[in-house]
Design a protein that fits this description.
The protein is built from 15 helices and 19 strands. The protein is of the alpha/beta class. The longest helix has 15 residues. The structure holds cytidine-5'-triphosphate (CTP).
């Protein structure tokens, strides 16, 4: 079953639509906010209503849309005050070039700009998802205005690049709804790892026997990718060394794709000197074929299977944990253990064997490929269970646990 993480649960988002063809994406964005647990109040400018109807946005948000500062539904006749104060965030998507210019000037002659100006800036953040033609985007006036709204306290999200409705190609497209959901969700996460550089290994490795076949395992990479995303959302710079998996790169994460354990070791050792936290979630093959056949190993007609010889792969986690950086307390190492039985004993023993401050145990067959998992945290003080939950929710809890351990850890 696909789990939707209720990351926006309890949040009330004022979704403001301004004039632009990207309004068609705002319908999907509204749906995604609601699926993620938020309540959504839509406010549209007159120009936005040229592109999508308030009826569509009302049906998707389950609330009447506001469009006029003279809206008589508010008993005190002050929709700009009421709507801006009940919101946890105002998200303008799409934010047109003209509307951004209006924000810069503090204009307030229609409801949406009026409520942006009237918002209590210290507790109601303003997020902008710009959308416009590439020439409008790169125009110095727009870039100047974007710098000014950011200086005035707005949070400007990025833009996409590619084909535009006008037929031109370039920067300025509104980000896709799923990307905006990720960015808004990230915005709300506490920045527990600000200033940290987190290095994560994830997924399986593939140890080639010949150009056709190889040895791998069932790891999907989902837990590692969720941890990379959670660390990024918590404000860390994140490098993700990924074995062969079919997962999209979490936004803002630097990804290095590798295939074999040896490549994973090299990529990890390259990144480790800058890292302050290392989380080894990868299911690294313990063994690789001693010889790699340049051509496909063929049946020889004798009916005898080929004899394969293996050599042990270097333990990446152990190597990093024994590095001077980790030993001197500059790099906090977290290991994972995928077991099939006796989780507590194996996890405790593995933590000591690898010489790391924190080990996360899970039952392999119950997690590989799943969207949820249950974790057992083992450190010098004992055990803590994180009950079954979506992997992203567990990743956020793990990030909190790691952040709590960093300040007092070892030689720091
Ligand atoms: N690991 C690693 N490099 C390896 C093998 C494992 O970095 N060559 C890391 C994994 O990413 C994980 C931890 O070590 O964080 C546990 O790996 P596991 O293979 O379960 O542990 P082993 O020490 O090999 O123990 P066992 O085979 O007895 O389960």
């Amino acid at each position: 079953m696909q789990h939707v993480t209720q990351d926006l649960s309890g949040k009330h988002i004022l979704l403001g639509l301004t004039g632009g063809i990207a309004c068609y994406k705002s319908a999907e964005l509204c749906r995604l906010f609601i699926k993620a647990g938020a309540t959504v109040q839509v406010v549209m400018t007159e120009a936005a209503e040229q592109f999508i109807t308030p009826v569509t946005m009302q049906a998707l948000s389950g609330r009447p849309v506001y469009g006029s500062q003279w809206d008589a539904r508010e008993p005190n006749a002050m929709p700009h005050i009421n709507l801006s104060r009940e919101a946890d965030a105002i998200v303008l998507a799409p934010a047109s070039a003209d509307f951004i210019a209006r924000l810069v000037q503090g204009r307030s002659d229609e409801l949406l700009s009026l409520l942006c100006l009237a918002r209590p800036a210290d507790r109601v953040p303003l997020l902008l998802a710009p959308a416009m033609n590439r020439e409008m985007w790169s125009h110095p006036a727009t870039q100047r205005n974007l710098m000014q709204v950011a200086a005035d306290g707005a949070h400007v999200l990025g833009v996409g690049s590619g084909w535009q409705a006008c037929g031109e190609t370039g920067d300025g497209r509104m980000l896709e709804p799923a990307q905006l959901l990720d960015d808004v969700t990230a915005f709300f996460q506490p920045k527990l790892l600000a200033g940290q550089h987190v290095l994560v290994t994830a997924g399986p490795t593939f140890e080639a026997l010949d150009p056709i076949r190889g040895i791998t395992n069932h790891s999907s990479g989902k837990m590692g990718f969720s941890i990379a995303r959670a660390a990024r959302d918590a404000g860390a710079e994140v490098t993700l060394v990924a074995g062969p998996v079919h997962l999209p790169t979490p936004r803002g994460v630097a990804r290095i794709d590798v295939t074999s354990a040896a490549e994973m070791l090299d990529a990890t050792l390259m990144a480790a000197p800058r890292a302050t936290v290392f989380i080894a979630t990868a299911a690294v093959a313990d063994w690789r074929p001693a010889a790699h056949s340049a051509h496909k190993i063929k049946k020889d007609g004798s009916g005898q299977p080929p004899v394969l010889h293996f050599v042990e792969n270097t333990d990446i986690l152990l190597t990093v944990a024994q590095s001077a950086r980790a030993q001197s307390g500059k790099l906090f190492c977290v290991g994972f253990a995928a077991e099939s039985e006796n989780l507590v004993e194996h996890a405790k023993a593995k933590r000591e064997r690898k010489g790391i401050p924190l080990l996360v145990g899970n039952i392999g067959p119950l997690t590989f490929g799943q969207d949820d998992n249950a974790l057992l945290l083992v450190d010098a003080n004992g055990l803590r269970e994180l009950p079954r939950a979506p992997k992203l929710a567990l990743a956020r809890e793990l990030v909190t646990e790691i952040a709590a351990r960093l300040p007092g850890w070892s030689a720091r």
